[in-house]
């Protein structure tokens, strides 16, 4: 599980592209997907905070916060861009930030209201993806193919699929049961 800072040091241009899409409207905006207790996905809009220290999110008391406290797996997707169809995606694990000095620094950077019942989570980066879609068509008239940049944390992806002990479930890269029927 790489920190945002470690990912950004390894792939600075990719990290900058993702940061620009997440912060395209000023403060960070994105869709956060968490894992419900029954294993299904839950999606909510959030305002992620990216600093030199990492990728963070303030989460108020809510089902998504309980999801993160119970099962830290997450996926974060950028809001749609107004000028293009570019998109950014990051996935990994969320862990609560408990250090008071770090909480204060990130709260200042994210302008978090002190009177709100929020908990700060740091998001590690197992997967980062940036997709850029050029407008127009090729010389043959076909739509231009999107340019996709993908980074996988080498420490998190020794195997793309793994069996869950005690079950017959096969888990994909992000921990979801790959055999689960679509709802």
UniProtKB/TrEMBL annotation:
<feature type="domain" description="Pyridoxamine 5'-phosphate oxidase N-terminal">
    <location>
        <begin position="26"/>
        <end position="110"/>
    </location>
</feature>
<feature type="region of interest" description="Disordered">
    <location>
        <begin position="158"/>
        <end position="183"/>
    </location>
</feature>
<feature type="compositionally biased region" description="Basic and acidic residues">
    <location>
        <begin position="170"/>
        <end position="183"/>
    </location>
</feature>
<dbReference type="InterPro" id="IPR012349">
    <property type="entry name" value="Split_barrel_FMN-bd"/>
</dbReference>
<protein>
    <submittedName>
        <fullName>Pyridoxamine 5'-phosphate oxidase</fullName>
    </submittedName>
</protein>
<dbReference type="InterPro" id="IPR011576">
    <property type="entry name" value="Pyridox_Oxase_N"/>
</dbReference>
<dbReference type="Pfam" id="PF01243">
    <property type="entry name" value="PNPOx_N"/>
</dbReference>
């Amino acid at each position: 599980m790489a920190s945002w800072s470690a990912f950004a040091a390894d792939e600075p241009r990719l990290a900058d592209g993702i940061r620009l899409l997440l912060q395209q409207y000023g403060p960070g905006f994105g869709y956060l997907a968490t894992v419900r207790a029954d294993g299904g996905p839950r999606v909510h809009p959030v305002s992620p905070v990216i600093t030199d220290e990492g990728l963070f999110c303030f989460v108020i008391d809510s089902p998504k916060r309980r999801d993160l406290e119970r099962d830290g797996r997450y996926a974060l997707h950028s809001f749609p861009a107004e000028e293009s169809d570019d998109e950014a995606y990051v996935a990994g694990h969320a862990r609560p930030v408990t250090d008071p000095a770090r909480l204060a620094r990130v709260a200042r950077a994210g302008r978090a209201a002190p009177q709100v019942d929020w908990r700060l989570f740091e998001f590690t980066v197992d997967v980062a993806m940036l997709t850029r879609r050029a407008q127009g068509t090729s010389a043959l008239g076909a739509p231009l193919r999107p340019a996709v940049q993908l980074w996988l944390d080498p420490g998190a992806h020794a195997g793309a699929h793994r069996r869950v002990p005690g079950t017959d479930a096969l888990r994909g890269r992000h921990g979801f049961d790959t055999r689960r029927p679509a709802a």
